[in-house]
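Appendix B. One record, verbatim.
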Amino acid sequence: MPRQCRSPGRRRPARPGPGTGIRLLALAAGVAAAALAAAPAAASSGEPGHPGAAVPLSIAITSVSPSYATPKGTVTVSGTVTNTTAAAAAGLEVQLWSSSFRLANRDAMNSYLSAPGPTNVDLPLPKSIETLASVPAHTTKPWSLSLAVSQVGMTSFGVYPLAAELSQFGAPLDAARTFLPFWPGTSASRHVQPVTLAWVWPLIDVPHQTACPALLNDSLAASLASGGRLNQLLAVGGSAVGRQADLTWAIDPALLNDAKVMTARYRVGGTATCSHASPRPASKAAQDWLAGVQSATAHQDFFVTPYADVDVAALAHRGLNTELASAFADGRAEAQAKQMLGQAQRTTADPGDGPGVTGPIAWPAGGIADYGVLESLAAPPTQIGTVILNSTMMPPSPPVPYTPTAVTTTPDGLGSQLNVLLTDDGIGQILADPPSSLPGLTTGTGSPAAAAFAREQWFLAETAMIAAEAPRTARAVVVAPPRRWDPGTALATALLNETVRTPWLHPASLASLVAAAHPTGQANRREPRQLQVSRDELTASLLNQVQRVQAQIGLLTSILAHPGPRYLSTAIDAVESTAWSGIPGGRRTAKQLLHGISAYVTAQQQQVSIVDPLRVTLGGKSGEVPVSIANHLKQAIRVQLRVAPSPGRITIEKFTGLVTVAAGTQRTIKIPVRAAQAGTSVLTLWLTTPGGRPLPGSMARLTVEATHFGTMAIVIIGIALGVFVITAAARAIRRGMRSPVGEGGAGEAGEAREAGPTGTDPAYTGPEADTVEPEQAGPSSAAKEPDEHASTPGWAERR
């Protein structure tokens, strides 16, 4: 194999071929010319072999057609040569390298790609050479070569090395490596059991909404639009080839909710109290995308993640099993309530496939979970029946020389078995690694097309090697790309096409894998570790803060008359998402979101308060003190009013303090009080939940002034009545003493005159003059005022 440019090690001599003599004659001149051409770039690139160093002249492979070789066939290998120098490069030549010996196993494949120098597993192909007259400065030029399979000598099913070497005047400059699977044709079909391949196709994004109706930002709009990441994943996965590949969708219900928000006029940003958000028009792209999801899930298998794809391992490790179950419940409820999926979540296989999947599916972040996490997932109320893990969680024991089937079980801690689907770690890394980390590519100058091809061909070669390791044993492989995968349309389509059209692969759904009664290709596996904590898990400090905010939410929920199920729990789910472990600065973002939720809850609590009455005056020893409770929330509340009097000065009589206050209204409670003596007392008032937990910030003080004015009024009235009775009696006695005795006429006249004001004599003109003036009975303003009533300034208006 040709060494890669800038790599140490001796290059194995090539076999003589046409034009070799001429190249040898020009070797000295070529080396000098290459050095001169490379000098400008080398001066700025740093040490040879340094990661990321610029390559003056580089080569890349961008396609192999067909993607695998067959007997008597011809394979076309194409690529590019890039000149990053300031001068044109001449005397360039591209030559293919391969071998008639297949690679032994998957480890040998990895070594071939990543070897810094010669691999000793391939040789140059003299008939596969192309000369490039010149490549201008800062230019990329294509090349294409044909490879005759018979020339290489491939005969048995397996994976063979393939490389393209770039040289200048015979001196090697750079090389690109890949693989070429070989399929013998119908003869192999009788001896090779196809590998069953199941895809997990993720529709998962970062959370875009917490406590407020507005979205956190508008980044989702670009992802749902044409050419966006989520748009491309849905288009490819829901296409005809996606249905043929029988892929299984992994869908985050939080993403469905966020997209649903965008189907009408929506708002973005704003403060923690949900104000000052920027308006946005309804998104046609979001409407079309949700329609596409509904169409895809009507015909393809899927499962929903817990809401916001929470970090299930981190929650289980902190003992937050209630929160874990709540996140799964939130996810199922959201998916069902919005009716955005084409069918109910698939938890059983198609009729005829077998007993089916027992319970919903869980997919921990990175497929990493220890035994304790699995027990938490299987236990009620979560009751997960199938879990998707990385193959490294349950390796074969003892090791076997082949890749065992991905379907297995493990005890669930409840006396039963938990179904386990193991995703292939090697293939997962191929799909997840950034282009700069892909071996076989020229460091720092690999084009997107070259990176996409490298993944596609490596994926195909891995599946061929798995099939060739134990060709007579049927096995299953589960492929799970990163949760927020962005392959692009071309690569995603190519991967599914290979799944469908490759003769050694058979597509299947996850449900059908678990439904198989007796899967072959099994191997004894280690049980998951008792403790396996990923360094990417959410931290204990963050989850401790989450619990404190949840306590705030619980307090607010307890005063709502009709709280919705799991009030604000989806906002907490968004903080606990796996998204914040997978992006730079993600954990800091999670803390900021949590602080925003805390501020929102505090602001909501402040919408419930006691209306400060300032001062109340009692007209006696007892009375009723009115206290008003204001509710500015958009839903009814139920709270308890508590009162603490001044010791020894005033007593609170029994009253009903538990009241329901309608949304946006006030409610007045009359508190019966009794004062021990005249003077001023202070009552301390506060609100609690119906269960007695105090509401923060609800305390108020009320000043009560007792005057005992009612008792004084009774004394004054009593004295006035006594004076009136005495005066009336004295007047009657005096009049009786002046009346004449003897003649009836005079007596009758006297009686008539005495009748005066109440008589019927028309001659009566007025009372007879009296020598005694009546006493004033006292001021008439001293009217009775019952002791049991209080006089409060402004109270009538509040009634």
